[in-house]
Amino acid sequence: xxxxxxxxxxxxxxxxxxxxxxxxxxxxxxxxxxxxxxxxxxxxxxxxxxxxxxxxxxxxxxxxxxxxxxxxxxxxxxxxxxxxxxxxxxxxxxxxxxxxxxxxxxxxxxxxxxxxxxxxxxxxxxxxxxxxxxxxxxxxxxxxxxxxxxxxxxxxxxxxxxxxxxxxxxxxxxxxxxxxxxxxxxxxxxxxxxxxxxxxxxxxxxxxxxxxxxxxxxxxxxxxxxxxxxxxxxxxxxxxxxxxxxxxxxxxxxxxxxxxxxxxxxxxxxxxxxxxxxxxxxxxxxxxxxxxxxxxxxxxxxxxxxxxxxxxxxxxxxxxxxxxxxxxxxxxxxxxxxxxxxxxxxxxxxxxxxxxxxxxxxxxxxxxxxxxxxxxxxxxxxxxxxxxxxxxxxxxxxxx
Length: 400
Prior knowledge:
6 strands; alpha/beta; six-stranded mixed beta sheet; 8 helices
């Protein structure tokens, strides 16, 4: 065991003597007898310093070795811990990935099952819709065939009724013409002739303008106002008004116009029409006096058509009073022109030809009805065959 430096120093400092070949207890070297105490102390100090340096270096080396060992141990422990952590992390990632894959797989299975259920439901809906469609087609086909059958029955009935109505209307028209001729041949007073003309004008207006939606009313005798009131309507809306007086006197009177003009102003009518067989001096068939249209009864319907169209157009254009009066004057001027007279004459010629046809039809009345009866029987037979074919399709489902 090496003596502590402190003990050695204490021993040196303690007075002692060397005998023979004395040796230093520190280095085991022979101590010379000629050294003084001071030199010996110096040597001891030098020896102690060297020993201390050696001891320090040894401690340093030992500390360095221990630190190196600890560092290596720490590295080994860190590497082991890192490997362990890596192993744990890998395991956790694997478990998490497996769980996520299982979850995705479960969702995919659920989605597949849902898609299958939706597909099955869609197929069921399609089948149900097809069944409903087939049922609707069958019901509509049955209904259409039934409606067609009813339509054919109705068409046949309407055709018969229309033929009878047309024939009745033509007979009534001929009858009115005959009565008009009889009345003209009879001797009657001016008032009775005037009333008859009023009735004829009223019937003619209703026959030609009722279907247009117009409202035509006759003012009773003794009541103030014109003989006839004609409301011009379109789509159920009142567009304007025309008032009429009908005279069948043997002599013209200006009071006819004055009275009707007063009635027009009182009724706020757009036009006033006076039908008469006698005209003011210098006028024929048509004249305008004080804003009153005077015309032959034979031309009443044609002229009223022009007046009615004028009312509708001016109403649609929302013309001012000045513009309306200007248009009215232009209309009256046209009606009194040669061009308009030519058109009226042509219309009268056509009407005369139609009357001739009607007269010929009267003579062949029985022959026409006989032929019509035969055609109706053939139509009934054809309809019966058609109906039988439809019944065959509905009941048996086969082709006709």
